Amino acid sequence: MSRSRIIRIATRSSPMALAQAEQVATLLAGFGVGSELVKVTTAGDRWMGDLSKLGGKGAFVKEIDRALLDGEADLAVHCLKDIPGDIPVPAGLAFAGFLPRGDIHDAVITRTGAPLMELGEGTVVGTSSVRRTAQLHLHYPHLTIKPLRGNVNTRLARLEAGHVDVLIAAVSGLHRVGQQHRITETLDLETMCPPVGAGIIALQCRGDDTELLDHAARLDDPSTHQQATAERAMLHALQGHCNSPIAGYAAIEPTGRISLRGRVFSANGSQWLDSHHWGVGEEPEALGFFVGADLLRQGARAIIDAIPFCR
Questions:
Q1: 82 is an active site residue
Q2: Whose CA, among 12, 40, 45, 270, lies 20 to 30 Å from 57?
């Protein structure tokens, strides 16, 4: 790659997204490659209502995809969990790499500093995540769920203002914006199974940009790449939509084997399915499709289809 080329990095303008993009810019600079940020305000950032009305998580990436395809940017930096898994990556684009994975747990932040089990009946938890909502209903039925959108700093401000009593946020995201000191407790993975792609920063570029693909490959973490591939294959097999509470995570064992746990919930958490299997590290996609197929054999299709589709 020419040392004179300035890589234009497309990113959302939220504090977390900018922190991620700046991290990538720093890594590129370590290779002697200059870059500049191209800030994109997406439909998901502009809309503070029910995200399903915009078609779900794709609302956070469509404009960035278009910036890449139109040649207005060269490299996109995404939270992998925000990239839809039920549809292919747009024609002309490709994953260029995945940075080493961060913490996949969810954290609880309360105004009183009390953990969830000590909070009283009717305590209000702010979240618009269908995955979190289903699992909160399952494990903490005494809590009241209130829809709450916005980036993590906006949601923290709403907590401070008393609009809600509790927030649930990704541990990795809190670290990226320097708010990890706000964590009251970290939920275990049995209680709050993470979203597919949790803690993973994904890099995308045009599929014909061979120079950038080669360079971004130097940033790619092989273990994270395996985990991302397995998890997204499972998500694709399930063909859920933006209102589907689907969760799952892969892990690489010391032996090199890869494990994948997948879960599907009904909207109110009253029904849930679980699948946990192992495979060889060289075939993460096969493991993902196997776990997805196992969940479908258990009845995942009926649970997913019973939930209204994005409007």
A1: yes
A2: 270
Contact of 184 with 109, CB cutoff 8 Å = yes
Rounded to an integer, what distance in angstroms lies between the CA atom of residue 16 and that of residue 150? 11
Contact by Cβ (8 Å): 143, 123:
yes
Q: Is the dihedral of CA 35, 37, 42, 47 positive or negative?
A: positive
Q: 108, 183 in Cβ contact below 8 A? A: yes
Render pLDDT for 166-187 as a digit per residue (tens, 0 to 9): 999 999 999 999 999 999 999 9
Residue located via tokens 């497309």: 10
What Rg, from alpha-carbon coordinates, does the chain have?
19
Helix (H) or strand (E) holding 157: helix 152-160
DSSP 69-87: HTTS-SEEEEEGGGS-SSS
Write the CA distances from 295 to 41, 160, 237, 261, 292, integer angstroms: 36, 40, 9, 10, 5
Catalytic residue among 82, 106, 165, 209: 82
Express each pLDDT in 78-108 by its tens digit: 999 988 877 778 899 999 999 999 999 999 9
Instruction: Please answer whether residues 206 and 65 qualify as being in contact, where contact means their C-beta atoms are separated by less than 8 angstroms.
Output: no
Q: Where is 34: in which H helix or E strand?
A: strand 34-40
SS3 assignment, position 213: helix
147-184: b (≥16 Cβ within 10 Å) or e: ebbebbeebbebbeeeebbbbbbbbbbbbbbebeebbb
3-state SS class at 290: helix
Sign of the Cα pseudo-torsion (235, 239, 241, 245, in order):
negative
